[in-house]
Amino acid sequence: MNDNASSHPYRAGFVAVIGRPNVGKSTLVNALVGSKISIVSSRPQTTRHRMLGIASFPEGQLVLVDTPGIHAKQSRAMNRHMNRAARGAVSDVHASVLVVEAGRWHSDDTLAYQALKDSDVPVLLAINKIDKLKDKDALLPFIKEVTDGRAFDSVHLISALKGKGTAHLVKALLAHMPESEPLYDEDEITDKSQRFLAGELVREQLMQRLGDELPYSATVEIEKFEVDGALLRIGAVIWLEREGQKAIVIGKGGQQLKAISAAARIGMEKLFGAKVFLETWCRVRDGWSDDEAALRRFGYND
Ligand SMILES: Nc1nc2c(ncn2[C@@H]2O[C@H](COP(=O)(O)OP(=O)(O)OP(=O)(O)O)[C@@H](O)[C@H]2O)c(=O)[nH]1
Predict the structure, then answer these.
(1) Tell me: the pLDDT tens digits for 16-32?
(2) Ligand 1 center to residue 129 CA distance, Å?
(3) Is the ipTM of this complex over 0.95?
């Protein structure tokens, strides 16, 4: 068994990070892992897949299961997939973190809480975005409101964005993990391939730059991922649902697509520690986000 300096046993296990869309789950996972493995945008429902973030500390290892936000609207196949991925993550973990936004409790928070309570593992509450609250005195009544009639193992006030309060949350989570050898090498940060992460980095730029003009259904497929000496040659296809959406993504004189590619390439170079040559194209396939077979082709497997 791997003992640290103070001879506490090394602990390692799985933690589900659950919450409604846009509360900061991916930002929290990235903060704990120390690298940007999960994409972030101000648009709700950015995270579509369940992915593992591996956070290693001298005292132990947390394998964080980042999930799509749980929400009540399930009309499209894509949304049904996202809810299934989030609920599936709750089984087989040692603890869960329910992430909520400071000052606001939403009916979808109740839905997420209920999914956790049915799971029989310790639930820690992380009240995120405390940096946004002008009136810190409002926190006490909020804590009282959200904990009234709901059982949490502990409550943590955090700012995932600024890294505030996260050390305390890590300590509390590690205490719930079983004694174990590390589950992953300490230099591993995710279970997803570089190919997958490359696609997500392009999608992040689409979400961030195009905001509400962008159809929610846009997705990215990596057609080429080749190692060429010290260079990575990556080819990305942006899939859209209608011809008219292409003009939005490409922009005047191709400027928008150029900016998307440039920013995604910088993100890839940072994450992969290698020079990247990135090519991007737009293609159209009608109605794919409500088509279960197309979803599987684009990697939305349960
Ligand atoms: N001010 C502030 N903003 C935050 C904090 N954490 C996250 N955000 C912002 O909230 C937005 C949503 O963050 P995400 O991490 O994508 O949220 P998510 O819960 O993973 O969202 P989904 O993928 O939609 O489920 C982004 O604009 C983040 O920068 C925080 O601690 N403080």
Answers:
(1) 998 888 899 989 999 99
(2) 8
(3) yes
122 annotated among ligand-binding-site residues:
no
pLDDT at 10: 96
Domains of the chain: 11-175 (3.40.50.300), 194-297 (3.30.300.20)
Ligand 1 nearest-atom number relative to CA 69: 25
The half-sphere exposure of 219 on its side-chain side, counting CA atoms within 13 A, is 24
From 38, 39, 40, the mutation candidate for ligand 1 (largest count of ligand atoms within 8 A of CB) is 40
pLDDT in tens, 240-255: 888 888 888 998 999 9
Going by C-alpha positions, the residue among 169, 137, 141, 153 that lies closest to residue 24 is 169
CA of 80 from ligand 1 middle (Å) equals 22
- State if pTM tops 0.80: no
Closest residue by CA, ligand 1 atom 11: 42
**Amino acid type, 103:** G
How far, CA to CA in Å, does 24 sit from each of 30, 187, 250, 253? 10, 24, 29, 35
